[in-house]
Every structure is written in structure tokens, then in C-alpha cells.
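Before the break, one more example. Copy the sequence into your notebook; we will annotate it together after we see the structure.
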Amino acid sequence: MSRLIAIVEDEPAIRSNYVDALTRFGHQVAAFASRPEAQQAFALKLPDLVIIDVGLGDEPEGGFDLCRELRGRSATLPILFLTARDSDLDVISGLRLGADDYLTKDISLAQLTARVQALFRRTDALRSPQSKDTVIALRGLRLELERMRVTWNGEDVPLTVTEFWMVHALAHRPGHVKSREQLMREAQIVVDDATVTSHIKRMRKKFVALDAAFDEIDTVHGAGYRWRP
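Here is what the structure looks like once it is written out:
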């Protein structure tokens, strides 16, 4: 099934690369160079997924504004940030505005398309909640694999796709230590060790926001991380 993906990116060469890559995977792609241009099109019809840069032309946070507006119109539209800005503050800002994932532009085109497919799989699973789901249940954790949904004590944990796969990597074999390299492989990302550490910190904060006593993710110094056995 062909889906419509919108790309909002002000750099022409980068925009063209993304359009070519996603078109090769059978998607329809609409590209926009600015927030107003995208807003005009989205007023007529929302796409099936949106990829947004944070800085758009003379609007250093135009992507954040667009994300906020889109999330206000649809709670389920997959929104993915793809940007050169990788500070913790920017990542957290994007996720708090409701983005499903936040990627930096050093990601490969193959990884980007894998991330897009994962978001579409999650959207499809959420639309058919009666479908059979693989579930991991550990104490307060419930992880529904096909729906890419994680709850803690019955409350939804707002994880990005990257964070979801990291939680899955840890929780499906509790007690087993996963190195940063293994977590990257399972989350289909290639980043430095500090970025993996940042992902783990943000994951913990999201669980702690729901339960101040949360302590399921252990740091095994010099080796990696594990879900408490």
C-alpha cells in the first residue's frame, strides 16, 4: 500500500536525497521547503507520516512549531524529526511536543527508511487492536511488540521508536547485560556511546515520571545495561 510521506526540509540537496530514497521504497513523497508551504498543503489534507527538520529557513524552531500544530490536529499522525541539532534540550523539546522519534542527519538512508516502516507498522497495529500481539510482562512493565506500545503499571510510557527497541532489547532477556553496541544494533541506529547513554537517561526519566520508585534499568559499569532480573 502506497503511503503519502511529507518531508519539510529547507536544504534542497538533502530534501532531494530523502525524496529519492523514500520513493524507491514505494512511497508517495511530498516535499516542502518551509513551514508556511507545508501548512498550506496540510490544511487541505494530512499526509500519512511527516518528517521535519527543526530549523526551517529563517525560523530556527519552525519545525517545533509545525510539530505542535500537527499534533494538535491529530494524536496518531506519525511525526519524525530529522535534524542536525542533537543537543539533549532539542531532543527533549521535540519529544515533549509529541514527535514519535528524533533522529540526526548522520543516520543512513537505509536506517531512515527502516524507522519509517517501523512507524507505519505501529500505526497499522494500533488501527487493528484485536490483532494477536506478542507481549512481554515483567512486574509493572507490559510491552506489546506489534503495537510498539509500552505501559508501566497500566500507564502508557511515551517512548520513541528508538527507545522502544532499546527497552525491548533489555526486557526480553531480563538480567542479561546488553552492550551499547548491541543496543544500537537492536534499535537500528549508529551513534556514539554518549548518545546511547542519553537515550537510556531519557528512557529512565519517562518511567520515573510515572513511578518515582522505578529502578528496573541497571547500569553495569564497563559492560552496558540490563533490565533487572
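The two ends are 41 Å apart (CA to CA). The chain has a mean pLDDT of 88. Try to locate both features in your own notes.
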